[in-house]
Amino acid sequence: MKNHSRQGRGFAVDPRLLIGLVLVIGSVAAVVAIVSTADETVQVYSASTSLTPGDRISLADLDTSNVRLAGVGSLYLLPGDVPDGGFVVTRAVDEGELIPASAVGSVSGLRLTSLVLNVNGALAASIESGSIVDVWSSREVANGQFGPPAVIVAGATVVRLVQSETIMAGGVSMAVEVLVPKARIARVLEAVSNSDAMSIVPATIPGRR
Predict the structure, then answer these.
(1) Which of 101, 48, 42 is nearest to 76 (CA)?
(2) Of 11, 36, 121, 137, which residue is the least packed, with the fewest Cβ within 10 Å?
(3) What does the angle CA 99 – CA 92 – CA 62 come to, to the nearest 5 degrees?
(4) Is residue 51 within 8 Å of 57, Cβ to Cβ?
(5) How far apart are CA 83 and CA 58, in angstroms?
(6) 91: how many CB neighbours lie within 10 A of its CB?
(7) Which residues pair with 138 in a beta bridge?
(8) pLDDT > 90: what percent of the chain?
(9) Burial 169-184 (b: 16+ CB within 10 A, else e)
(10) Whole-angstrom Cα distance, residue 138 to residue 44?
(11) Which domain of life does the protein's organism represent (predicted)?
């Protein structure tokens, strides 16, 4: 009777063993998923040369780079994102830099145009291509006397410094090309035709380098 009782017993599985196996399998699967994700690369466009605001670019102006972006590929310009008509650059992109999707705009929706302005006095050292600036103007109210200045364009983008310093009328003048909203072109041209004193001031606080 005692032997028969032993033979009738089923094989008992320790629940702790099952839990341990599940944890091991889960850990292995997680490691495999992480390694697989880390090895995935995305093809992204990069600038074959330095791009400045206002430049119109096409596929011929771009290189492709295979990079690991860990799920943020949508923030950059990817193959298939460039239309036949190309894009317009809205902020400076250095040579070899991955092109952010926010750095380009549609040609058809472009609402900016570039103007070259002669500004009085030296420019701030932080002003360069891609800088965001405010354009100030002061109208002459008497011979050599000017009224209070006012901002005529806020948040303009510097395309490039057109020329080096030149001496004009006893002062220093610098020519700067800036992107101006089309809605403000008439106001800027009015200031230019009236020979208003114009200045360009950084719109943001320069960061430390």
Answers:
(1) 101
(2) 11
(3) 40
(4) yes
(5) 8
(6) 18
(7) 197
(8) 13
(9) eeeebbebbbbbeeeb
(10) 46
(11) Bacteria
Amino acid code (one letter) for 180: V
CB atoms near residue 115 (< 10 Å): 19
Question: What is the fold of 14-109?
Answer: Type Iii Antifreeze Protein Isoform Hplc 12 (3.90.1210)
Give φ, ψ of 201 to 5 degrees: -125, 135
Confidence band, pLDDT 50/70/90 cuts, at residue 131: confident
Residue with the two structure tokens 């605001």: 53
Alpha carbon distance 199, 122 (integer Å): 9
Tokens of 46: 């990069």
178 in Cβ contact with 114 (< 8 Å): yes
- What integer best gives the mean pLDDT of the chain? 78
Tokens 């701030």, residue? 124
The position carrying tokens 């948040």 is 155
d(CA 167, CA 178): 21
Residue 128 CA from chain centroid, whole number: 15
The structure tokens listed for 95 are: 């040579």
**Three-state DSSP class for residue 28:** helix
Q: Mean pLDDT: which of 21-25, 73-77, 121-125, 186-190 is highest?
A: 186-190
Q: Residue with structure tokens 């119109």?
A: 56
